[in-house]
Amino acid sequence: MKVVRNVGLEMKNSFLSIVGVENVKYSQAHMLAYSYDATANFQAMPDLVLSPRSTQEIVEIVKICAKEQIPIVPRGSGTNLAAGTVPTQGGIVLLFNNMSEILELDKENLTVTVQPGVITQDLSNYVESNGLFYPPDPSSMKISTIGGNVSENSGGLRGLKYGVTKDYVKALTVVTPAGEVMKLGGKLAKDVAGYDLLSLLVGSEGTLGVITEITLKLIPLPIAKKTGIAYFNSLEDAAETVSAIIANRIIPVTLEFMDKGTIGAVEDFMKIGLPREAEAMLLMEQDGNDKQVDEDIQKMIAIAKENGATSAILAASEEESDILKTGRRAALSALSRKRPTTILEDATVPRSEIAKMVKAIQEIALKHDLQISTFGHAGDGNLHPTCLTDVRDQEEMARVEKALEEIFQVAIELGGTITGEHGVGEMKAPYLEWKLGTVGMNLMRTIKQSIDPQNIMNPGKIFAKETKKRLVIHGGN
Ligand SMILES: Cc1cc2nc3c(=O)[nH]c(=O)nc-3n(C[C@H](O)[C@H](O)[C@H](O)COP(=O)(O)OP(=O)(O)OC[C@H]3O[C@@H](n4cnc5c(N)ncnc54)[C@H](O)[C@@H]3O)c2cc1C
User: Fold this and answer.
1) pLDDT score recorded for residue 475
2) Which residues contact 320 (CB under 8 A, 6 or more apart)?
3) What is the C-alpha radius of gyration for the chain, rounded to an integer number of angstroms?
4) Quick check: 378 and 239 in contact, CB under 8 A?
5) Low-confidence ranges of the chain (pLDDT < 50)
6) Which pLDDT belongs to residue 465?
7) With a 6 A CB cut-off, is 74 part of the ligand 1 pocket?
8) What is the reported pLDDT for 11?
């Protein structure tokens, strides 16, 4: 999997003739702007940034790149947290700012067809104004693109009840690494013709082709929703509440968790009256019809009290509920204000193991003398331990790396994974084998090589040069 990095003047002119002069960027300032994404401590300059206007233009670009072995890094809004859009082997960064149209709303088949550059929040607002609902709601939805969401298989606050992006992707148009157009799926309810290539492309992080059109499933917009909030003096009580809610056969739309450090950071940032003394907070939301919503939210509040909540109440109004959800969505931004570098992880475990995982994270932070706050989608077992550090302090960074490795290891030992929704990118590539094993990695490599034999699509992502050695700290294998 070798790529040759080379975008000479003649080639620049070829790209310019495809996309037009206004859609090619190559100044130092532009290269710098596209040399990093939302991931701390990763940076590399691209050679050229292109903003194509159509699938056909992408076909022409990819054909040149295939012939000349130029790396292509598709980039939505660059909000991924795994260095997935850092052009670590140079080449072309492909933007979708000229491909951000909502193309069709099909009310009979309940689908919407969009270009990849549509902003997630804009899509959500558009379908809701038509009485329909697109549930996946990553906290970054005000900036992230649908193309990025599909390529990362992103989750969100509503994942527990409604699933993640893959559960809504019905069809894709993809430009393959050879520059051919492939149409996958359709507006069908059922389709078992051949291997499930649609699912292979979802979550492929720009390594198997360029996604140029997306058809998504929609569902009717729920009539009612209500939010409850519970505070706890112990993390274990909050974790027990999560398990007890599910054991009581309630599937809330949202069951979000913040620890004391995160509560304090959000309060500093937003001043919304969160109690800084609480050790943990759960945000619980249900949607559906009025009767069911009322019943479920009251039951969840009662369960929280039975499990030791110091306070468990219903949000007084929709406005208060929106403020609380905005507070939760702002957790990462709020924590980022505390120290120069924020490294957010994505360890995910079966929901029954949440208490053990949260406790292990705290022990690991203590052991390595680090500031790690945790928040996340508790109902999904998807936690975001967030390390507040400073990349300029090499000694501290070495401790951070050790701590994160230990967190991944514990997650795997508890039956979990190294990433629940953020993807592997370049950052977590050295750990992927811990999850997949050698056989799994070899199969993935075979798939990549057969689709992209020259490794021009987002090289260096998902597949690491070297796998990190497993640590033996908790008696795992
Ligand atoms: C504050 C904050 C909160 C976040 N909250 C969440 C959350 O709740 N849930 C969650 O899952 N994630 C979350 N994320 C991570 C991130 O926002 C998601 O992964 C999101 O889907 C990335 O979208 P993007 O448009 O920024 O894509 P980018 O970061 O630009 O790209 C992501 C990946 O997709 C590939 N790609 C992009 N477009 C295409 C295309 N058209 N064809 C092929 N490949 C493509 C890129 O090469 C890259 O590998 C959060 C990030 C931040 C900064």
Assistant:
1) 40
2) 227
3) 22
4) yes
5) 474-477
6) 86
7) yes
8) 84
Q: How far is the CA of 460 from the centre of ligand 1 (A)?
A: 17
Residue 353 · residue 383 · CB < 8 Å: no
Cβ contact 407:365 at 8 Å: no
Q: Which two tokens stand for residue 453?
A: 């034999």
Ligand 1 mutation target, pool 89, 92, 151, most atoms within 8 A of CB: 151
Question: Is residue 85 within 6 Å of ligand 1 at its C-beta?
Answer: yes
The dihedral region occupied by 245, where left means phi > 0, alpha psi between -120 and 50, and beta the remainder, is alpha
Q: What is the pLDDT of residue 476?
A: 37
State pTM to two decimals. Answer: 0.95
Answer whether 206 contacts ligand 1 (Cβ < 6 A). Answer: yes
Angular region, 261: left φ>0, alpha ψ -120 to 50, beta rest: alpha
Characterize 254-274 residue by residue with b for buried, 16 or more Cβ atoms within 10 angstroms of its Cβ, and e for exposed: bbbbbbbbbbbbbbebbeeeb
pLDDT at 8: 78
Return left, alpha or beta for 450; rule: phi > 0 is left, psi -120 to 50 is alpha, else beta.
Answer: alpha
Ligand 1 within 6 A of CB of 460:
no
Give the closest residue (by CA) to ligand 1 atom 1.
Answer: 140
